[in-house]
Amino acid sequence: MSVERGVIRNRKRANQVRDYSGLRVGNITPTDLDGLIEYKRRGYVLLETKYQGAPLPKGQELAFERMVDDLQIVKPAIVIVSTHDTDDDIDMANTVVTRYRFRGKWHTPDDEITMGQLVQRFLHWLEFEYNAQ
Fold first, then answer.
1. Predicted confidence (pLDDT) per residue in 18-53, tens digit
2. How far is Cα 92 from Cα 86, in angstroms, rounded to an integer?
3. Which helix (H) or strand (E) holds 50?
4. CA distance 127 to 23
5. Biggest CA pair distance of the chain
6. What is the chain's Cα-based Rg?
7. For the whole model, what pTM was predicted?
8. How far is the first Cα of the chain from the last one, in angstroms, to the nearest whole number?
9. What is the mean pLDDT of residues 68-96?
10. Rounded to 5 degrees, what angle do the CA atoms 114, 10, 47 make?
11. Is 70 within a domain?
12. Total domains, the chain
């Protein structure tokens, strides 16, 4: 049986809560990442979304910042943070970007842009502009 890629295959398993309390190291506890794209060995896209108004915790922000900056040394990388306002399944492509980190800096979009639109812009840049340099 063929399943469409990206679709939740086992809703019961996807809804399980992960308890990281036993993995605490001093003040540090594990963080999660909502999505990751490794694109044709050319670059990385890290994806995170929060419920509308929920802040990105400082520890998670630092982890994403350091990870994307480290990845950038090897090849282009971006982390995109977005927001949603649903209690139902989250259509990640249609969440609204609140900020993103690229080339060592956090950026806030001037105009509303969805996660799907920014991902496509970055992949287009990887495909056509970055590789032409």
1. 888 899 999 888 899 999 999 999 999 999 999 999
2. 11
3. strand 43-51
4. 39
5. 47
6. 16
7. 0.90
8. 43
9. 96
10. 25
11. yes
12. 1
Which contiguous run of DSSP H or E holds residue 73?
Answer: helix 58-74
The letter for the amino acid at 1 is M
Whether the CB-CB separation of 78 and 101 falls below 8 Å is answered with yes
CB 95 within 8 A of CB 49: yes
* 17 is a domain residue: no
Q: How does 111-129 read in b/e, with b if 16+ C-beta sit within 10 Å?
A: eeebbeebbeebbebbeee
Name the residue range of residue 40's domain: 31-132
Distances (CA, A) of 89 to 11, 48, 52, 54: 10, 15, 14, 17
Question: Is 61 inside a domain boundary?
Answer: yes
